[in-house]
Amino acid sequence: MIDALIAAPLLLPAFAGTATLLFRRRRRWIGAAISVGSSAGLVLLAMILMGQAIAGEPTAYALGNWPAPFGIVLVLDRLAALMLLLTAVLGSAVAAHATLTGLDRKGWHFHPLFQFQLLGINGAFLTGDLFNLFVFFEVLLIASYGLMLHGQGAQRLTAGVQYVIVNLIGSTLFLIALGLLYGITGTLNMADMAVRAAALPPGDMGLLRAGGLLLVTVFALKAALAPLHLWLPRTYGSTAPAVAALFAIMTKVGAYAIIRTVPLIFGDWVGQLLLPAALVAMLLGFVGLLAARGLRDMAAFGLTGSTATLLVAVAQFDQRAMAAALFYLPHTTLAAALLFLTIDLVIRWRPAEGDSIVPTSAFAGQGRLALLFLAAAVALAGLPPLSGFIGKLLILQASLTSPYVIAIWALVLGTSLLAVVGMARAGTTVFWKQGSCPPTSKNRTAFRAIEALPAFFLLAMLGGLTVAAGPATAYADATSRQLFDVPAYVGAVLGPDAPGAVR
Amino acid sequence: MSIEFLVASAIAVLTAAGIYLALRGRTFPVVLGLAMLSYAINLFLFAIGRLTVNRPPLYEKGVTDYADPLPQALVLTAIVISFAMTALAVVLSLRSFLETGTDQVDGIVEADPPQPDREAAP
Which residues contact residue A307 at a Cβ distance below 8 angstroms, ignoring those fewer than 6 apart? Predict the structure, then answer.
């Protein structure tokens, strides 16, 4: 019974998304309530599942009761539970924000798309089958196309066309990689593939590596590593900021897929290519942040840079570095989302300037926004007192044994400085300098303090992560150990008698 | 000529044409390129179960040689997804053309852009 609960994070948004479809014309508030309620329910479910994952070994749930290598399994372990909880927290904040600010009434079907997006993301985190991972990637991408275009406008459409084309080509590469891997190993189940990849004859290793690299290329495209990052700033900079806040988890889906598949199936040689790409993307992201002229562009570049920082730690494929990455992962997601939500409020509450970084005359709620912006900037740049500082410190500490230690230290510290300068410049311009234009007419939508509630909720989560840094690092450590313990994963999925599950 | 050579070169030609078209600047060739790429992938996925003839499609007791049914299921899924995605890309590029007045993928209006046929609409 408790094993069947693993499927609940997929079923809840699927049913909630369908139910919200009923309320698309009248009584829209019921649809919004279902959506927010389902997101909050996901938080509860994720907490229960996390409690189950802490208890011990990975648990597998065979859908339709078909045994593992033949049927599709959902696998719950510490990493999956962490990602589920993060998605649920972020999803509730964004759903509440979209409802409070009326974003969901700017077009059709916001809430169904939102719920299906959560379904796809949760599925990608839970599945133990590579082709199923592809299917869930498609589910989350299809929903994200709709969400990205929500509200429309010419600029958004142009960026949307590029986003769709880039991701279609990514899906094509994904299928080629899957084809190659299936062709040589004869399986698509991740655990089974891990066993069979280890036993491949040397002649097939070249094909396995080619397939693995193609697969990692696709994941790097989702995680926006250089040189595959170019689509991200434009997409996230042109979509509604609240949607971009949800998309902060999408780059982490790419990072998650790398964390899941590489130690299990391919081995750490992938890191030699991944690490330079992450370092370059980190530099480009934060240079872009410094150069951005709009707040949304700035946040999008900051997201690119901080995701790349995360992947710098991941790409070392070392147990300590992975633990640091797993601590930094929830932080960077929440920080980027907080920044996007704050920017949405700036755009809504400021008189006329939109999202451009220009001096503004005083407006209602300015103090609150300045506080939120400061907190988001501190979090994104990785300054104390928020948890980004601890995360970056852990990453630096874990990189000491890496052959790239000088490059990693120089770039992580240098880009943090760039982030501080860029965010400080934007913050002082927007909140401290007095604009020359007179206060505009009163017929704007009135300032409503309650709109800032989800953003403050995210800030509280960041604060909680900082206060609970001890338990959180312990959790990340245990997760990292579990990730590199391939026999335990194989044993959980294929049964303890499987050939690769011997301890 | 073996059947492997034929299938492999068909996949190669489709992929090359698809990549070339996908790199073009206008949306219509790009959509065509994506379609070609997805055809190439469908063929490729079909071939990963090895090219065999005259074998039963499913395992039965006493049958030692049978065709691998899984790639066919994968191809079906891939066809459905790529079909829907191509339709979405077509609609999106049309909308983008009508709203921005250009069919360039990067949305930058060139010197002599083709105009959407507004008179034809009622």
Answer: A223, A224, A251, A252, A255, A281, A285, A332
